[in-house]
Specification:
Distance between the termini: 33 Å
CATH class of the largest domain: Alpha Beta
Number of helices: 7
Number of strands: 16
Radius of gyration: 19 Å
Strand content: 25-35%
Shape: globular
Largest sheet: 9 strands, mixed
Order of helices and strands: EEHEEEHHEEHEHEEEEHEEEEH
Structural class: alpha+beta
Number of domains: 2
């Protein structure tokens, strides 16, 4: 299934109010979202038939659209139900769910005040974001050329499609060098995140993570911070300079797709996946499974 192009797959996609055959979920080449990046999306994971933190994802999607200046024509409750319907239609119990909203093709040009707002949800099987063998020993990250922009120059707190252009460029460049991903700095030169995941470091038993002031404060990031605090770990959110990387012993990244993934190296810097990384990985998996059991019994 992983080798089948996404436009050639079978099943159904929830598209503007109804489930339609996967192959029929099409948009015009002059869609504003394609030309000008006026689209917002979410990435959710389902475990045992339930989507983890679905409400938080749906609320963030609506907020992202508000930041980009448009309103999704469905309520948070309706978005939740659309996500569940797409997952069920694909007969998935474990999988990835992608809701997306975008401006349509009614007018072309920078201004698109009257363009229709479209909304769709697709779901598919996606066992691991990174190669399982790489993940066991810690993935390798390059250091990206592009930096996360200032909030004064881009809507950095929206999960907006256009903001991922530099992520794709950076990930492709890293993969060409044999890395799994890349770490991005922010516009000030501080450590920011990976191309699609937040980042954490460990030094002398203390967890350090960048302040999410110019990139997404990820839902998985927030979950893991809560798990760390529950464990009694000291966790510091602060600005981290790249020259500090040599002082950390452990590193891991977090995201709905990545879950909790250990990092073995970033450029010339080496890390050893250790107890804190392993504990938070186990706690995260236990949490998503427990959360599903709670919903199932409700």
């Amino acid at each position: 299934m992983a080798d089948i192009p996404f436009d050639k797959r079978d099943g159904f996609i929830w598209f503007n109010g109804e489930l339609i055959p996967w192959a029929d979920a099409k948009i015009h080449v002059l869609t504003h979202g394609l030309h000008y990046g006026s689209a917002v999306f979410e990435g959710c994971r389902a475990y045992s038939g339930e989507i983890f933190k679905l409400r938080e994802h749906s609320e963030r999607l609506v907020n992202s659209a508000d930041i980009l200046g448009f309103k999704i024509p469905y309520s948070v409750d309706e978005i939740d139900e659309a996500c569940r319907a797409a997952l069920k239609a694909q007969k998935l119990v474990d999988g990835y769910v992608r809701p997306i909203a975008w401006r349509g093709s009614e007018a072309m040009g920078v201004s698109a005040q009257k363009n229709k707002i479209n909304f769709a949800v697709a779901a598919w099987e996606w066992p691991s974001y990174f190669d399982p063998e790489q993940r066991k020993k810690g993935i390798r990250l390059d250091i990206a050329q592009y930096k996360r922009p200032s909030p004064e120059t881009a809507p950095s707190h929206a999960k907006a499609a256009g903001l991922y252009m530099i992520c794709t460029i950076s990930k492709h460049a890293a993969e060409a060098k044999g890395y799994a991903d890349a770490m991005m700095l922010d516009y000030r030169g501080y450590v920011a995140e990976a191309t699609g995941a937040n980042i954490f470091f460990v030094k002398d038993g203390v967890i350090h993570t960048p302040i999410a002031d110019c990139f997404l404060n990820g839902i998985t990031r927030q979950t893991v911070i809560g798990l760390a605090e529950k464990r009694g770990y000291e966790l510091i959110e602060r600005h981290i300079m790249p020259e500090e990387l040599t002082t950390f012993s452990e590193c891991f990244i977090t995201g709905s797709a990545a879950e909790v993934t250990p990092v073995g190296e970033i450029g010339p810097h080496r890390f050893t996946p250790g107890k804190i990384t392993a504990t938070l990985f186990d706690d995260y998996i236990a949490t998503v499974r427990r959360d599903i059991r709670v919903h199932a019994s409700a």
